[in-house]
Amino acid sequence: MDQKTRNEAFNEYIKILFNSSSFKERAIAAQNLGNLKEGRAINMLVRALKSEKDDVVINRIIEAMGEIGDSKATMPIIEFLKQEVERQEEDQDKTRLFVIIECLMKIGDKRALEHLGILLDSCHSDIRKLTEEAYECIDPEWKQNIKSI
């Protein structure tokens, strides 16, 4: 895909993400933005994340940020992580937690480690396991670093 076509696609996906009344169209637009892997999309995705109400679209926006892999997405994603972990464990959205952990793992920003730490004590073994994988991916020497602290 040449740059002109990429720009046209980018602009169309942004337009759909912000203007479509269909949650499916918005979710697909977010996914397509992630597939473009263009860092310039992060600011727009963050803006969309702040105003989006549909859970499916929110998850797709977070996934798109992970696909792009820009560390500018770390803190907005962590805000959603904080919201989930503030809930009672039985009320937490497990799908969202998995999406968040996987995306933070893809981004690889060490600022996420402090916030992911609470999930190492999760009652759900799948979440604990994925969180440990995220720690290994983001900082392979995390266990030694914790011991030294």
Keywords:
single chain; Leucine-rich Repeat Variant; 2 domains
Give the topology, please.
Blueprint: H1 3-19, H2 23-36, H3 41-51, H4 55-68, H5 74-86, H6 94-107, H7 111-116, H8 125-138, H9 142-148
Task: Describe the structure in your own words.
There is one protein chain. The chain is mainly alpha-helical. The protein has two domains: 68 residues, Leucine-rich Repeat Variant (Alpha Horseshoe), CATH 1.25.10.10; 78 residues, Leucine-rich Repeat Variant, CATH 1.25.10. Helices cover 74% and strands 0% of the residues. Helix 1 packs antiparallel against helix 2, helix 3 packs antiparallel against helix 4 and helix 6 packs parallel to helix 8. It is globular. The model has no long low-confidence stretch (mean pLDDT 92).
Q: What Rg is obtained from the alpha carbons, in whole angstroms?
A: 16 Å
The secondary-structure element order is: HHHHHHHHH
How many strand elements?
0
Structural class: mainly alpha
Percentage of residues in DSSP E strands = under 5%
CATH architecture of the largest domain: Alpha Horseshoe
Portion of residues within helices: over 70%
Task: Describe the structure concisely.
With 149 residues, this protein is mainly alpha-helical.
